[in-house]
Amino acid sequence: MPTREIPREEWKTFLDTFSRQHEGWLATLEVLGTDIGAQQEARDLPLEGVSVASKDGSPETIAISLGKAIDDHVTHTITEPTRIWLEQTSQGANAALEIESVDQVKTLLRFRSALPADMVDGVVLDKPLRPEPQRER
Question: Distance of alpha carbon 14 from its chain centroid, rounded?
Answer without folding.
Answer: 12
